Amino acid sequence: MKLADMTVTQFVDTVASDAPAPGGGSVAALAGSIGAALTAMVACLTQGRKKYAEYAEYAAEVEKKGVDLKARLLDVMDRDTEAFNVVSDAFGMPKDTDEQKAARSAAIQEGLKGCTKTPMEMMELCADGIALAASLQERGFNDTSASDLGVALLSLKTGLQGAWLNVLINIGSLKDRAFAEEYRKRGEALLERALPLADAGFAKIVSMIEGEE
Questions:
Q1: Rounded to whole angstroms, how far apart are CA atoms 129 and 123?
Q2: With a threshold of 0.85, does the pTM exceed it?
Q3: Of 189, 123, 121, 127, whose CA–CA distance to 153 is shortest?
Q4: Which backbone phi and psi does 80 adopt, to 5 degrees?
Q5: What confidence tens digit (pLDDT) does each residue in 106-161 have?
Q6: Are the CB atoms for 112 and 132 separated by under 8 Å?
Q7: Cα 83 to the chain's mean position, in Å?
Q8: DSSP state, 22?
Q9: How far are the Cα atoms of 5, 128, 137, 188 from residue 191, in angstroms, in the given order?
Q10: Nearest CA-CA partner of 78 in 183, 165, 6
Q11: What is the distance in angstroms between the CA of the first residue and the CA of the last residue of the chain?
Q12: Whole-angstrom Cα distance, residue 21 to residue 35?
């Protein structure tokens, strides 16, 4: 069964078990997906209301993009677990001869690259989600759902940083240092771009709720 097809209870029970996957990477992707879903929800609630009519057209665009990001993050959640299983299988390969050891090492290294690519994709999607939520906040939205947009930003930030941890733990074991350095730089650039947006957006939400804006 795909992780995305599990009930909430099944998913969290599996995470809580001794099964090595789903783990942190899958949870990071789910957090990002929930953040994208909340962004879409806030955009949806901004439409069809006279008070927010001037924001409706852009909110409709945000809703569509948020729903798409939600689906893409759920997809990468399952692919991240599949990538982990590839590495797990590689570690189980025989290592009795030099040839077997070489084949096993090569399979592990290739698998680790796969385990780096999926969380990087998560980072990219979560960064896009943060930018989307921030743009909705900037343009204007239904302020009765301010707390929902705040949780969206927090969830997307969690997804972004959680995915980054998974990038780091995998590139640390890679022998291909050029590949590792490329992914490190890509991840750092995404953090530099998206984290300030998420933090500033959350601070604005708090101020709005407290009546300071």
A1: 10
A2: yes
A3: 127
A4: -65, -40
A5: 999 999 999 999 999 999 999 999 999 999 999 999 999 999 999 999 999 999 99
A6: no
A7: 16
A8: S
A9: 30, 11, 20, 5
A10: 6
A11: 46
A12: 22
182-187 contacts at long range (C-beta below 8 A, 24 or more positions apart): 183/116, 183/120, 186/120, 186/123, 187/120, 187/123
Structure-token pair, residue 124: 């990219």
Helix (H, G, I), strand (E, B) or coil at 154: helix
Dist CA 48 CA 126 (whole Å): 27
Give the start-end residues of each E strand in 40-102: none
Residue 76's closest CA among 152, 178, 159, 155? 159
Q: Rounded distance, CA 188 to CA 116, Å?
A: 14
**Cα-Cα-Cα-Cα dihedral sign, residues 117, 122, 128, 131:** negative
Measure the CA–CA gap between 177 and 77, rounded to whole angstroms. Answer: 26
> What is the rounded CA–CA span in Å between residue 119 and residue 122?
5
